[in-house]
Amino acid sequence: MRSRAGVFIGNLLFAALCCCTGPIFLAIGYAAWDDDPGWGWPAAVAAAGAAITLTIPVSAISSTRKEFPGITRRDRLKGGGFPYRDDTFVLLAPRSQQGSPQARLLRADVLEASLVRYNPDGESTFTTHVGNYTPDEFTPLIGLRLRVRDTEETDDGTDGSGDFEVSGEWRVSAVCLSAITAGRLVVLVEPAAPGAQRAVTPEWPRSALLAGTRTSRLIDLEGRSAELTRRSGRQLQQMRISREAGGVVMTGDTIDLRTLDPYTAARYAALADRYRDHPEDQAPVSEPGEETRWLADELPGEKGGFGWVGRRWSRRGGVLVRARFLEMRSTTTFQDHGPVLDTVLRIQPADGTTPFDAARQLTVPMDYLTVLHRTKEVVLLVSPNGRSYVVDWARTSLLAGVTEARVIAPDGRELPVAGRPDLIWALMNLLASQGLSVTKPVLDLRKRRLRAVAGMVTRVVQDHTDPRTCA
Predict the structure, then answer these.
(1) What is the pLDDT of residue 60?
(2) Which of 43, 100, 267, 434 has the highest CB neighbour number within 10 Å of its CB?
């Protein structure tokens, strides 16, 4: 793992090479000053040289901050922090095609998904497409087989003509990839002549809402709040009302009926009354058959591992903490392995003090974005002085289940850790406290250097074993 100092030195040398004319002009101007003092051409050359020379450290610092995005005191949100609850997540994604006014808004289940093409230029530098949030170069093309549900009850009480399947290839905004893994999409279906194939267009931001990636709440006309996350039937009905009204703005993750026009608010209220009398169960986090929709292995990102531990960092008291994304907002800047997003995180300090919120622009790996519907947690490396936090994407990938964690006991048995983030978190902290680096997702206790912690690891696994699974 690269250190911040190493990244800065590399960027400083690169900037010095690119701006080498600055020191040269500065030296020429200074030397000529003795022969021709005053504000003539030597002064102009020296001034130009000084200006170019000053860009060297500025450029190095700026590039390092982008490549090594530490969260510091300057990133903390002022004014009491982000005004959302701990379980809130706001996702602001690029808009999809709106379709014709006659198009119907329906739910579609994802039966199969596979990556067709994702071919950026192969560079790790930052690329900005002014005004374009979804350039083809950085928007994966995904092949999907969908079952469109056209038999559910609509607002006027009539039924559709029946479910149907459709296959195709669509560009998917990276921040909405989790809707595919979850298996629930919102699609626009255009009318067609009898016997003709109907055009189907996924609505990606609404799909992320239906999938539960973005949380959802509603405040009714009496000020009562209702949780709507993963209440897919009610959410779809609300989306239809919103579309017919020309759009309804969510404040964070909340629709407040008291701020809407009377007609639209009344329609929302009638729907709320119907579901209050007949409550809807939450849909599963992921629909059955997730393995047929798993895209994380096909998209770029950081390979998961129990984590690298720097000796200096460990000796001086560096620790790990968990944080949670509260917001992600798309930008027009990208790297090959993921989009650059404006994010807000809620960080829980290691000393147990009050969590704080920080806003930081981060490159979020695509493979992590595919599981955003089930986790918003990240692992942060905390500097020994507690002033800087850096996202550890390798540990985050393992904790999120993007990469499956495995632990092999000294006798060769595989201990049950997959899908148990709290246990994986405990093991990460144990290894970090012992100064042991395990950069792979497999913790093999048969290795000589890990034998000293084999007993501790086994006890941690036993302590976290669900008693319901024991005989």
Answers:
(1) 57
(2) 267
